[in-house]
Amino acid sequence: MPKPLRTVLQEVTYHCYSRCQGFNKLLFDNFAKKCFIEAIKMCQDKYNFELNAAEIVSNHFHLVIRTLKDEATISLIMQYIKARTAQRYNRATGRVGPFWNERFGCTIIEESENPEEYLLNLLWYVAFNPTRKGESRDPRENYIGFIRCYLTEGLVLPIKITLHHYFYRLGYNFLECVKRLLFYEDAYRKRMALFF
C-alpha cells in the first residue's frame, strides 16, 4: 500500500526527524556528525529556509525548519540533507547500503492547538534529546548545542540557526525572551523527572 502524501506548505514550521537504517547508531561517531553538519551547511548555501533547531542523537536527528514563501519545500530540503549525509559518509567509510531507515517524519507546528506553546516546548524537547539518551549531560553541551543560540545573543555556530519568531514574542528584548524561555526549560526538567 503506498504511503500517504506528505502535506507540503510554505511559510510554516516543521519538526522533522529521521532514524538511521536499522536503528543503528550511525550518527554516534564524530565523523558521521561532521557529515551531517556539512550536509546542512551545503543545504543552507543551496536553498533559502530558516533552521530554528538542530540536534543529533546517535541513531536519529531532529530539525526544526521554517519554509519560506516561494522557496524550497520541506521535502526538497530534507531530501538534500539526508542524501548528502549518506553519500559523504558511505564514500569515506566504504559503507554500502542505505544510511536512513525510512522517509523522514514531520509535524507542522502551526497546525497544533497552540503553536507558540508547542514550539517553545519543542525547542527544549529537541535540546534534551541527547541528554535523555545518555549522550550528553546538559543540552548546552550537545554536539550542535543549538539551544545556546537562544540563550546567548549573537552566538554563531557552524550551522546558521535562525531564532524562531515565537521566541521573540516572549519579551521586549533578548534578555527578557531568554528569561521566559528558561521557564520552559524548568517545566521540561520537571516533566522529565517524573519519568526517571
Write structural notes for this entry:
The chain has six helices and four strands. With 196 residues, the protein is an alpha+beta fold. The chain has a single domain (13-195), classed as 2-Layer Sandwich (Alpha-Beta Plaits), CATH 3.30.70. Helix 1 (30-46) crosses helix 2 (74-93) and helix 3 crosses helix 6. The mean pLDDT is 93.
CATH topology value: Alpha-Beta Plaits
Q: State the helical fraction.
A: 40-55%
Distance between the termini: 39 Å
Give the spatial strand order of the biggest sheet. 2-3-1-4
Give descriptors for this structure:
196 residues; alpha+beta
Summed up, what is this model?
The chain contains 6 helices and 4 strands; from the N terminus they run E-H-E-E-H-E-H-H-H-H. The protein has helices at about 30-45, 75-95, 115-130, 145-150, 165-170, 175-195; strands at about 15-20, 50-55, 60-65, 105-110. A 4-stranded antiparallel sheet has the order 2-3-1-4, covered by helices on one side.
